[in-house]
């Protein structure tokens, strides 16, 4: 009896005190349920995990095995993606619907089982089907291995800060209405910090999120952009922020007063409470330097010094203009990998596969749409068609007719990508993949286009981190631009912004067998077709091969 009690106490400690107790396996239960939530004085049922919004934070250590049982109690099919987790050889647990798994149907369960190999820092989990990630999301906090310090001064406290969006309307109805009409969906009604629009909203009686601080102490904010469709600035009035990590990769310390975080990205910053006393505003606001509709509302929260009266005046900060390209660019180009002996930047110096992907918009015919046309998005002018059988299953079991392997490595019809667009704005449709040999080195130049309108595109690659070795405005020049690539300490990420009317070059090593999604993390563009997938072959032997599928893998 005593030994059983000890086991239970240790398990309880694993879940409640992850920074103290070293545990090899972390068990979580995610129950997907509807809950009524009120924001902006509007109450509606939303899809949640365990009734929480945002969902529960998943804590683990580098090297831990994580087991999450997801049970679906809502009317929608569901999957959960562990955004940024490498999933080495465990693609069955990556989560994008119809890419690596069929969705979990109502009343069914699926156990995600993966190991956090060589990763530490902040990531996020979110639904990866329909637009459910608007409310089905949460943080992943991967602590260093026990007794391994941070490569920066240890903060006195850590706080998870999740940026998001809120719609008063049902989010699925918003996108379904837009798709039927062939037009862009309505923008959100508010930006949020840990799900609250904040004390400056039109319904301030709902309160908001507050970070209590003590003067002289240092806090690490683990900031996540879980918004569906908008890149976001983040500021704290009266305080500077020192970036020490992005996308679970340590950086050279970088001091700034304004962050830019695209959907799917994470940023850890150190904030020293050096103002003595007072209340200071946290603000998140959109970045969009193209004349398309955005939600202009600023989400707010409060940094509250101990001993300061609740009635004290709050020190405000002005968010950057919505089109503040210089602010966004300054932050982006200032990031560098730490590239230390313990945390090297292993940039591929040679390239086996050199790919050039245009990312942009198009217009396709639609007999049922309002103007007989539909707005679409594409990679290399291919609008991706989602299959009805999961691609990884089709690949593993050699099921024919689900996809082809003829995704173009370069645009089939070159044009002046950032100049006058071609007269034909129509895209091709297809479920076309690109095959990569195991361990090959890959370079992808992501080129924005001026079709309809040039725009920033945050591109996320599943299954890999990559190095952002170069970026620029205008058309990429293969003859001259590579000479300016940073191959020493480029930032390493899993999600990168392609600048409006410009390009970004990334490199990675295809050392993870399976089928891996690449897509824009603006959900509207993903819905419209700005996505593709890589098939990565097995290597030699079981340690370089995809594991067999689990017995509870959902069926379509």
Note the main attributes of this structure:
556 residues; six-stranded mixed β-sheet; disordered N terminus
Give the overall form. Answer: globular
**Strand neighbour order, sheet with most strands:** 10-9-12-17-14-15
Helical run tally: 5
- Broad structural category: mainly beta
Uncertain residue segments: 1-21
Radius of gyration: 23 Å
Strands, total number:
33
Main sheet: strands, sense, barrel: 6 strands, mixed
Mean pLDDT: 95
Helix content: under 10%
Strand content: 35-45%
Instruction: Give the termini separation.
Output: 45 Å
Detail the topology: elements first, then pairings:
Layout: H1 2-16, E1 25-39, E2 42-49, E3 58-61, E4 65-72, E5 80-83, E6 109-115, E7 121-127, E8 137-143, E9 157-166, H2 171-181, E10 190-193, E11 210-213, E12 218-225, E13 231-236, E14 241-246, E15 249-256, E16 259-261, E17 266-272, E18 279-287, E19 299-305, E20 314-315, H3 325-333, E21 353-365, E22 373-379, E23 382-384, H4 391-396, E24 428-430, E25 433-436, E26 440-448, E27 457-461, E28 466-473, E29 492-493, E30 495-498, E31 502-510, E32 514-520, H5 523-528, E33 531-536
Parallel strand pairs: 1-4, 3-8, 9-12, 11-19, 18-20, 21-26, 23-24, 25-33
Antiparallel strand pairs: 1-2, 4-6, 5-7, 7-8, 9-10, 12-17, 13-16, 13-18, 14-15, 14-17, 18-19, 21-22, 26-31, 27-30, 27-32, 28-29, 28-31, 32-33
């Amino acid at each position: 009896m005593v030994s059983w009690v000890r086991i239970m106490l240790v398990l309880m400690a694993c879940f409640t005190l992850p920074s103290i107790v070293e545990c090899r396996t972390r068990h979580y239960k995610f129950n997907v349920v509807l809950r009524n939530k009120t924001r902006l004085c509007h109450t509606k049922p939303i899809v949640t995990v365990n009734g929480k919004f945002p969902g529960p934070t998943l804590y683990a250590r580098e090297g831990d095995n994580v087991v999450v049982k997801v049970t679906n109690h809502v009317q929608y099919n569901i999957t959960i993606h562990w955004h940024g987790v490498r999933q080495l050889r465990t693609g069955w647990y990556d989560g994008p619907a119809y890419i690596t798994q069929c969705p979990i149907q109502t009343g069914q369960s699926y156990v995600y089982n993966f190991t956090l190999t060589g990763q530490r820092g902040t990531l996020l989990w979110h639904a990866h089907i329909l637009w459910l990630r608007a409310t089905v999301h949460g943080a992943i906090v991967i602590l260093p291995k026990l007794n391994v310090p941070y490569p920066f001064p240890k903060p006195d406290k850590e706080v998870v800060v999740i940026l998001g969006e809120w719609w008063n309307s049902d989010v699925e109805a918003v996108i379904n209405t837009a798709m039927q009409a062939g037009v862009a969906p309505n923008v959100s009604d508010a930006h949020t910090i840990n799900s609250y629009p904040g004390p400056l909203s039109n319904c301030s009686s709902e309160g908001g999120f507050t970070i209590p601080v003590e003067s002289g102490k240092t806090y690490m904010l683990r900031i996540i952009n879980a918004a569906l469709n908008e890149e976001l600035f983040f500021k704290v009035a009266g305080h500077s922020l020192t970036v020490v990590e992005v996308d679970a990769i340590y950086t050279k310390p970088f001091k700034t007063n304004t962050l830019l975080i695209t959907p799917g990205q994470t940023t850890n910053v150190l904030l020293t409470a050096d103002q003595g006393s007072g209340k200071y505003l946290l603000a998140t606001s959109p970045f969009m330097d193209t004349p398309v509709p955005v939600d202009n509302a600023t989400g707010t929260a409060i940094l509250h010094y101990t001993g300061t009266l609740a009635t004290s005046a709050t020190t405000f900060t002005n968010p950057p203009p919505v089109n503040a390209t210089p602010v966004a660019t300054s932050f982006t180009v200032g990031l560098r990998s730490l590239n230390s002996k313990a945390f090297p930047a292993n940039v591929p110096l040679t390239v086996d596969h050199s790919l050039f992907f245009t990312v942009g918009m198009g217009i396709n015919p639609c007999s049922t749409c309002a103007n007989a046309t539909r707005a679409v998005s594409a990679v290399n002018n291919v609008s991706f068609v989602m299959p009805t059988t999961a691609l990884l299953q089709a690949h593993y079991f050699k099921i024919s007719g689900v996809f082809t392997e003829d995704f173009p490595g370069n645009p089939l019809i070159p044009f002046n990508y950032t100049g006058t667009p071609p007269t034909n704005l129509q895209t091709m449709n297809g479920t076309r993949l690109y095959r990569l040999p195991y361990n090959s080195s890959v370079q992808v130049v992501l080129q924005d286009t001026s079709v309809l309108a040039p725009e920033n595109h945050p591109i996320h690659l599943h299954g890999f981190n990559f190095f952002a070795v170069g970026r620029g405005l205008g058309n990429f020049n293969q003859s001259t631009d590579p000479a300016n690539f940073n191959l020493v300490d480029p930032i390493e990420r899993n999600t990168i912004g392609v600048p409006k009317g410009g390009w970004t070059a990334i490199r990675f090593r295809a050392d993870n067998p399976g089928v891996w999604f690449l897509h824009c993390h603006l959900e509207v563009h993903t819905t419209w077709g700005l996505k593709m997938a890589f098939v990565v072959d097995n290597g030699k032997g079981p340690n370089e091969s995809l594991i067999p599928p689990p017995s509870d893998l959902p069926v379509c």
